[in-house]
Amino acid sequence: MNIFKRIYCRIFQGAFRLVLPFLPYREPKVLSSLNEIPDLLKNLGVKSAMLVTDSGIRGFGITKPLEDLLKKEGLNLTVYDKTRPNPTVQNVEEARQQYLTEKCEAIIAFGGGSAMDCAKALGARIAYLKKSLNQLKGLLKVLRKIPTLIAIPTTAGTGSETTLAAVITDSEKQHKYTLMDFTLIPHYAVLDPTVTFTLPPHLTSTTGMDALTHAVEAFIGKSTTRETRAKALEATKLIFENIETAYKDGKNKEARANMLKAAYLAGIAFSKSYVGYIHAVAHSLGGQYNVPHGLANAVIMPYVLEMYGKKIYGKLHKLAVAAGVSTKNTPYKESAEKFIGAIKELNKNMNIPDKLDGIKKEDISLMAAHADKEANPLYPVPVLMNKNELEKIYYKVADFK
C-alpha cells in the first residue's frame, strides 16, 4: 500500500476510534426462551408480526413451536421463509411487500446470520420505503428507527443478534455489500439453546468458527476498548472449551448455551471494534461463488493471521492463553504459532478443509478489489494491505484443480 493511502487509512481509523465512546451503540435485551415472546409482543402493543426465516429451518419444524405459541396467544404471524444462505436484494424486496400487505408491526428473525441480515435489511426498507438497498448501503445511512426487531439465533456463530450490520448480495453484480447503522441492532435477542439442537454438525462447526473469527479480529484490531477485549477473550475461551462438544453432541444443552453466549459476546466485540481482512475476503468469496460465510472465515483465518506476522504476536499470545493452548510465560512468537496451530487443529477435527475449491484465477483480481474497497479505510486491521497484497490470500486458500 502506498504511503498516502496508508496515512489516510490510519487517520480515518484513528478518528473513528476517538468517537467510538460517543456513538449510540446499544445492546439488545436478552431473553432466554421462546416462551417469553408472546408477552413481549403484547406489552409492546404488537398484534401482527413477520417471521423471517428460511425454508430449511421451517421445513425441519424448528419454527413450529413459536408459530403455534403465537397462534395460541391470538397473535397474527406472517412467515417469509425464502431467505437464501447469502440473502439477496430480491429476498428483502419480497419480504417488504409481504410485510406491507399483511400490515405487520414487528419483525422476528429466526435462523442464522442470513435470516437476521434479511430481517435487518427489511427493517431498513420499511423505514425508507422510497429508497433502494443500494442507496442505504454503507456506514450510517439508515438513521430512522426500524420496526421492533426480535432476533432468535439458531446458530452460535454470526452474532448478528447483537450487530449493527446486514450483509446483502446483489445477484446481478455478484457482489456483497453491507448496511451498517446503530438502528439495525436488534432490540431483543432470544438465546434459547433448544433451538440449536437440530443444527447439523457441519453448520455447528463453521458457524462456531465464524464466532471465533469475530472474537479474534475484534481483539487484534487497532480500535479495541477494555470492554471489547474482555468480551473477545471470554468468547475465545468459551469457543475452545465447547465447540467440539457441540459438534459431536448437538443436544448437549450446556455446550450449546455456552456457544450462544460466545457468539453473543463476540458479536458485541466486533460491532464496536470491527473486523478485518478475513471478513473482507470471505464476503467477496460469498458474493462471487456463494461460499458460506462461516466456512470461508474458518479456512481463511489461519492464513491471514500468519500474514500479519510479528505485529500481532503479543495479541495472539493473550488469545492463546484464553484458549488454553499456551501459558502466560510462553514466548509471544511461540504462543502465536500455537494459537494458529490450534485453529487449524479445530478445523481438522471438525472436518473443515484447509483450502477452498472452485476459486478461479481470473476472478481473483476482481474479488481482491472488492475486499480492498470494503476493508480500506474502514477496518482497523493490524497490518494494512492493498489490492495486490490481498490477492495473495486468495492464492493461499484456493485449491486449484
What does this structure look like?
The chain has 401 residues and is an alpha/beta fold. The chain contains 16 helices and 9 strands. It has helices spanning 3-19, 37-44, 55-59, 64-72, 89-101, 113-127, 133-136, 201-220, 226-248, 253-273, 277-289, 293-308, 313-323, 332-349, 361-375, 387-397; strands at residues 29-31, 48-52, 76-80, 106-111, 138-139, 148-153, 165-170, 175-180, 188-190. The strands form 2 sheets. It has a 6-stranded parallel β-sheet with strand order 1-9-6-4-2-3, with helices on both faces. A 3-stranded mixed β-sheet has the order 5-8-7. Helix 9 (226-248) runs antiparallel to helix 10, helix 11 packs across helix 15 and helix 13 packs across helix 14. The radius of gyration is 20 Å and the shape is globular. The two termini are 31 Å apart.
Radius of gyration: 20 Å
Order of helices and strands: HEHEHHEHEHHEEEEEHHHHHHHHH
Main pleated-sheet profile: 6 strands, parallel
Number of helices: 16
Q: Give the spatial strand order of the biggest sheet.
A: 1-9-6-4-2-3
Structural class: alpha/beta
Low-confidence stretches: none
Measure the end-to-end span. 31 Å
Helix content: 40-55%
Number of strands: 9
Task: Note the overall shape.
Answer: globular
Determine the strand fraction and express it as a percent band. 5-15%
Quote the average pLDDT: 94
Looking at this protein, list some descriptive labels.
about 400 residues, alpha/beta, three-stranded mixed β-sheet, about 10% strand, globular
